[in-house]
Amino acid sequence: MRDFTYLSHTRRILFAPGARKALGNELDRLGMTHPLIVTTKQRASLVDQLSDTLAHRDWTLFPEAAMHTPVAVTEEALRRFDACGADGVVSVGGGSTIGLGKALAGRRGLSHISLPTTYSGSEMTDILGETEGGRKTTRRAPEIRPTTVIYDVELTLGLPLGISGLSGMNAMAHAIEALYAPHANPVTDLMALEAIGVLAKSLPDLADALDDVDLRADLFYGSWLCGLCLDAAEMSLHHKICHTLGGSFDLPHAEAHAVMLPHALAYNAPAIAPVMARLVPLLGADPARALYDLSRHLGAPQSLSDLGMPEDGIAKVAQMALENPYANPRPLAAGPLTEMLTRAWRGNAPL
Ligand code: NAD
């Protein structure tokens, strides 16, 4: 048995079909008398599904959450928060909405109840990425973690196939990288392996079962575990490259994850033989190729060029990876990195 350090964090998780109906009780538990409810314009109708549990309560809607948590939107939300006398935050939506909830609760040190509707896993983490003046910065702090998370699978039934698949691959990436993280421990290993198994079994069936509550509940369970992995373990090559692709080329978040994950795993494979051996029963004889095939099966974009990255971006991304060293099982070297990025840019299978 290896040595390890394990940190646990108190959060309250409700996981059940219809669990959104308990929102009122959860507000009372936290003593929240007037939440600011945040979501995106496109998903404002999700809040209608909370009308029963919010009946006879004070609340204010702020449906202006946006991708990459712009600070200007957070400041506008803070003005609304103060004007209506809110005393806590409820977020209903995907990672973009949860980001705004975290930004507000983190700044004011207030409770945050999150009802996620995608598989991003953001609701479980102490990580907040914010954009200002065209720059994205990421920070971690305990007060960023939502206080209570309500996983109601019924809120995910409208999630289209394309977004579901991409979001599922984004979740998978958190679990894969947790397996070779510097602070991996027996608990993160258990969560990651369980999550990868559940997602690998459920995602291929999604196209024919978009409204299947059991399958959607499995995906939600897997993505919850993936979020816990992201919260607990430091991420390596894959997440860092995706961060660069988003920050420098404005490539979409989940799409970049879907393209890069098979290639990042193939890059690290020579340095993580025991991890690869644990992935074989879950993904198949060639785990990196299996992720590439799964991503294609889900209809996800296959190449960085499809996502709009120019070819000369390959050298820039490789250079940025070499300039900002971070923990990664296989050392970063210009030649192999360029080769990996070229394959990802072209949409070739991972080597
Ligand atoms: P998102 O929140 O932008 O949502 C993606 C799309 O799904 C949007 O068009 C949204 O309207 C739609 N959608 C969401 N719920 C829906 C539903 N129930 N039915 C129909 N459509 C629905 O994207 P995401 O992939 O959930 O999150 C990505 C963002 O989260 C990125 O900004 C990323 O940086 C961040 N993120 C943060 C963390 C973290 O720990 N801080 C982790 C993962 C992702």
Quick structural summary:
This protein is an alpha/beta fold. It has helices at residues 23-30, 51-54, 71-84, 95-108, 161-179, 186-202, 213-232, 237-249, 253-268, 273-283, 287-297, 313-323, 334-346, and strands at residues 12-15, 35-38, 60-62, 88-93, 112-116, 127-132, 135-140, 148-151.
Describe the structure using short key phrases:
single chain; 351 residues; alpha/beta; Rossmann fold; Dehydroquinate synthase-like, alpha domain; 2 domains; 6-stranded parallel beta sheet; two-stranded antiparallel sheet; 13 helices; 11% strand; binds nicotinamide-adenine-dinucleotide
Put simply, the count of helices is 13
Supply the CATH architecture of the largest domain: Up-down Bundle
Strand tally is: 8
% residues in beta strands: 5-15%
- List low-pLDDT spans: none
The overall pLDDT, averaged over residues, is 96
Largest sheet: 6 strands, parallel
CATH superfamily of the largest domain: Dehydroquinate synthase-like - alpha domain
Q: Assign the CATH class of the largest domain.
A: Mainly Alpha
Strand order of the largest sheet: 1-8-5-4-2-3
Number of domains: 2
What value does the Rg take, in angstroms?
A: 20 Å
Order of helices and strands: EHEHEHEHEEEEHHHHHHHHH
Counting helices, strands and paired strands, the structural category is alpha/beta
Looking at CATH, which topology of the largest domain would you report? Dehydroquinate synthase-like, alpha domain
Bound chemical compounds: nicotinamide-adenine-dinucleotide
